[in-house]
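Let's practice the habit of predicting before peeking. Look at the sequence and jot down your guess about where helices and strands might fall. Then scroll down.
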Amino acid sequence: MTEIRPRRSVLSMPGSNPRALEKARELPADVVMIDIEDAVAPEAKEAARAAVAAAVRGGAFGRREVVVRINALDTRWGEDDLAAIAHAAPDAILVPKVNGPDALVAVGSRLRGLGAPARTRVWAMIESPLAILEIGAIASGARDVDTRLSCLVLGPNDLAKASRVRLGVPGRPALLPWLMSAVAAARAYEIDIIDGIYNAFRDEAGFRAECEQGRDCGFDGKMLIHPSQIAAANAVFGPSEAETEEARAILAAFALPENQGRGAIPFRDRMVERLHAEEARRVLAMVDAIATRQA
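Done guessing? Here is the structure:
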C-alpha cells in the first residue's frame, strides 16, 4: 500500500497576507496551500514570492502539508517563482494551467537542475478543456519519477469560464463527466485528486452537499477558500465512525480460522471479497494517519 497522507482539507491562503500565513499554522487543515498566483496582484507578486519563500523555510506548520502555487512558467514570474520556492523546499509545488504532460516534464527538469530535495513533489492544476482532454496523459506523468507528480487539483472556475459552463447549479451536472474523467485518471496512476473550491463560502449547507458529492465521486479532499470550511471538509472526506467500525469488522471476519484462504465470505447482510479487505486496510490506514496528524 502506498503512503497515506490525509488531504481532506486544502486551505488556500494568499501569499501576500502575512497574518493569514501566521494563522494557517494553527488551523486544523490537512494542507496549507499558499497562493502566489491568482490571489496576488501583479504589482505584489515579487514581494509575495520572497515572503512566502521565507515563511516556508521558517517552518512551524506542524504536521500540515505545505504546498505553494506558483505562477505558470510561461508568465514573467513563473521561472523566478519556481527557483525561489524550490529552494525553500515545501512539501509540494502546485503548477497552474497544466494542459499536457510536457509542462510537468519541464517543471521536473527545472527542479532537478535547481537541486530541489526529492521530498518536494509536484501537484498539477486541471483548469481547461484541453487539460480534460489530456487528463490521462497528464496523470501518467506520475509514472515518471522525474516529474514528481503526486496530486491533481481541479479548478472549476477556470474550467467553467473556458468551456462556458454555468456554475451554481446544485450537483454540478455539466461538470460531472469531466470530474469523473479526472478521478479515473488519478486512480489509474495511483495519485490523489482534490476537488475544486465552492465559491459561496457562507453557504454551509451547499458547501457540505458539494463535499459529499465530491467524496462520493472519489475525490480525496477539497480546496477551501475560508477557514470556516475546514471542519466540514475534514468530516466528510475522512472515514466516519461507521466506516471505521465496519473496516475493522471486515478484517476481523477474514482473520477467522474458517475464512483463511477464502476469496469471498458472508458478512452481515452481504458477501464481501478480498478487495473489500484491501479497502478496509486503506480506511484504517487513513484513520491512523489522521490521528497522527492531530497528535
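How did you do? The beta strands are 9-14, 31-35, 65-69, 92-95, 121-126, 149-154, 192-195, 221-224, 264-267, 270-273.
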